[in-house]
């Protein structure tokens, strides 16, 4: 019956993570998958989340509504848009609890496929690979706009603007507003403003995918692009709590659609609920309660904000430490990129062969594209990584 079924090649990042686990070497270092680990190499359990867990206990588990937990949805809106955003006071944002950031992008794609079909979807080159897959699954063709400039190891802003301008009016454009995966480079404020003018003028439909809020500058500052855009025009915003709540396996995310007015938002919310109903009916409760409890309580939210800051500061410190350690070993290797990039990832510019050499020779695992997850660095492994990096860079 299923003889013709093709083998699945696997997800390259998840497969690499499995290879890492199977690697017997003691001094191996995992800088592949986008997971934050602390200075001991462990995925932290945040104190705020633990406190929420104790509060919610295990009570009855009825179905949540299709749109998710009310406390959670309210928390998403305030966190993403800010409590005093005009779109929020106008009640023209439709928000649902989703199954991680992946679920948010997936439902966004399903919603757009039904209500604004036939358009081209533009994603950055490079991007999180699933952007192509999720929009293609929904029936769209995907294309790319330039984003990474290899020579300067920064954003190819001219290339990006030209491509967005040349695209057919009303195209769907996926933007990562902060801590871009995989490059670690973001638009500055002036570039955000310029691209906003262009996107609004072209009538493009923007889908923001914000998976790392709080890992750039702060929870508030990281949302500025989205907030300013949403004050100007309708858009969709997918957000993930996997990283900033360290709740990978609970699958917590949100999808918000900023609408023209309250009536439109109510109808859009209805269609999002229908998309959920047809896909998985309703989101999971424990994750919803955990995040909703933290975001809905002033003390817990303040505690969580400090915990996000701790994660961010550690990643920044590890970038600096790696740059210093490399500098001690060599003056030839360019380390500017480590300091210009932010968030969980750095695009090193290493080639696939160099990445393979790092892995095979030294047990240092990066993604084939040269992406390094800086959250996997710690004081104990930075010297090893610096030495490998210098060795491989100097051939
Ligand atoms: N979007 C981007 C840009 C990501 O890097 C990720 C990675 O985790 C996701 C979405 C998916 O988030 P989640 O793990 O919450 O599904
Ligand atoms: O890019 C990453 O490493 C994270 C984790 O299919 C991830 O986004 C990787 C692959 C995947 C889902 C999540």
From TrEMBL:
- Matching InterPro entries: Aminotransferase_I/II_large (IPR004839), Asp_trans (IPR000796), PyrdxlP-dep_Trfase (IPR015424), PyrdxlP-dep_Trfase_major (IPR015421), PyrdxlP-dep_Trfase_small (IPR015422)
A GO CC term assigned to this protein in UniProt: cytosol
Which processes are annotated in GO (biological process)? Answer: L-phenylalanine biosynthetic process from chorismate via phenylpyruvate
Identify the CDD domains for this entry.
AAT_like (cd00609)
Q: Which UniProt keywords apply?
A: Aminotransferase, Coiled coil, Pyridoxal phosphate, Transferase
* Gene Ontology MF terms: identical protein binding; L-tyrosine-2-oxoglutarate transaminase activity; pyridoxal phosphate binding
- Residues in coiled coil: 301-332
Cofactors: pyridoxal 5'-phosphate
Q: Which Pfam families match?
A: Aminotran_1_2
Q: Where does the Aminotransferase class I/classII large domain start and stop, copy by copy?
A: 28-388
- What Gene3D superfamilies does its record include? Aspartate Aminotransferase, domain 1, Type I PLP-dependent aspartate aminotransferase-like (Major domain)
User: What SUPFAM superfamilies would the database entry show?
Assistant: PLP-dependent transferases
Record family assignment: Belongs to the class-I pyridoxal-phosphate-dependent aminotransferase family.
Query: How is this protein organized at the quaternary level?
Result: Homodimer.
Tell me the protein's name.
8-amino-7-oxononanoate synthase
